Amino acid sequence: MPFDVQAAGTALLEAHSASVALAKAKIRELALPVPLERLDDVALVVVIICTLFSVAIALTLTRALGRTASALRLSTSSRADAIVLMGPKGSGKTCAWQSLAYGEQKFGTCTSVEINELTEDVKGKDARGREVTKRKVRVIDVPGHPKLRREAMLWLKQAKAVVFVVDSVTVANERKEVAQFLFSILSDENFQRRRLPLMLACNKGEKLTAHPPDFIRKRLEREIEAVRRAAEGELPSMAINSKQRRANAAAQKKRDKYRTLGQRPGEAFTFDAFARATACPPTTFDRLSAVKNQVEPLRDFIVRLRH
Ligand SMILES: Nc1nc2c(ncn2[C@@H]2O[C@H](COP(=O)(O)OP(=O)(O)OP(=O)(O)O)[C@@H](O)[C@H]2O)c(=O)[nH]1
Ligand SMILES: [Mg+2]
Predict the structure, then answer these.
(1) Which band of pLDDT confidence, cut at 50, 70 and 90, is reported for residue 258?
(2) What was the pLDDT predicted at 73?
(3) Which of 83, 84, 112, 118 could bridge 143 with an S-S bond, Cβ 3.0-4.6 Å?
(4) Distance from residue 198's CA to the centre of ligand 1 (Å)
(5) What are the pLDDT digits (tens) for 84-116?
């Protein structure tokens, strides 16, 4: 049935008049001190305020429903076929995602609270430098805010590769937080068991003060080693009886297996040693400038993935 603009307009006007009449009746019923000549104006203001209030409630509800739906999708989906963009907040994940999705920055970004997801053909160069297209690649941009870290980690389950985006300028100052986040990914059981490929995307590379990828690699290796050593010294959780003590010890042993990052005693962490010990592919380090849509190394990384 075609949309009847005139009928819709009439219905809106009728609804508006009915609302104003209702507001006037309510003002009279409550005996509010409104002069008779101002009754129409006050009723109109009441209707406008109520309408704005309803719109605000509807928007809040829609947002909450969106987040519930995304959490539901996360918990029920068993697909592990996505390129998952992770990393600290403000490092440029959403800009990199837009670059892949649209080849340009379609919208301005602010701190993400929800994921962005798309399935798109990705063009890049294979290991021999030939232009190739990978069909229907699912790419997920995960918010980096520390308060959303627990939920962010759950997206690893859907990953077939992880792209960890860092800000090449601030990474040196924020290395502790960045290393902690990276450690939680590298020591993840699912990540190690499935030998997920990892790319460290050193973004904002066009800036004069950007650190080169090799410098970032060395800085992060040192910092991850510090996190790893601190994790070794962590005390097991309290147990109130022997059964619980045994359960705690078993859980601790399992965690420790992954938290050593495959390094032998006395051996310091490096990305290469991690790859050798866990049989994960070697970590790729490369420079990007998402905001300038210079994300070729990311495209190449995606098209070179085996599956
Ligand atoms: N100079 C420069 N700025 C960038 C680049 N990429 C992103 N930015 C800027 O960095 C800021 C954060 O970018 P986002 O893409 O929103 O960062 P994010 O990683 O998605 O952040 P969260 O959603 O909070 O986790 C924005 O102001 C971007 O314009 C880049 O390559 N160069
Ligand atoms: Mg974002």
Answers:
(1) confident
(2) 62
(3) 112
(4) 20
(5) 999 999 999 999 999 999 999 998 888 989 899
In DSSP terms, 285 is beta-bridged to 200
C-alpha 159/C-alpha 283 separation (Å) is 15
Distance (Å) from CA 217 to ligand 1 centroid:
20
CA 281 – CA 301 distance, rounded (Å): 12
Q: pLDDT per residue over 2-30, tens digit each?
A: 667 888 888 888 888 888 888 888 888 88
Is there a contact between 143 and 114 (Cβ–Cβ < 8 Å)?
A: yes
Beta pairing partners, 120: 137
DSSP string, 205-217: TTSTTPPPHHHHH
Residue type, 195: R
Coil, strand or helix at 133 = strand
CATH of 80-303, one of 2.20.28.160, 3.30.70.260, 3.40.50.300, 3.90.10.10: 3.40.50.300
Q: Which mutation among 86, 89, 94 tests ligand 1's pocket best, with the greatest number of atoms within 8 A of CB?
A: 94
Q: Ligand 1 pocket test: which of 211, 291, 293, 294 has the largest number of ligand atoms within 8 Å of its C-beta?
A: 291
Neighbours of 223 (CB within 10 A): 21
Q: Where are the domains of the chain?
A: 5-65, 80-303
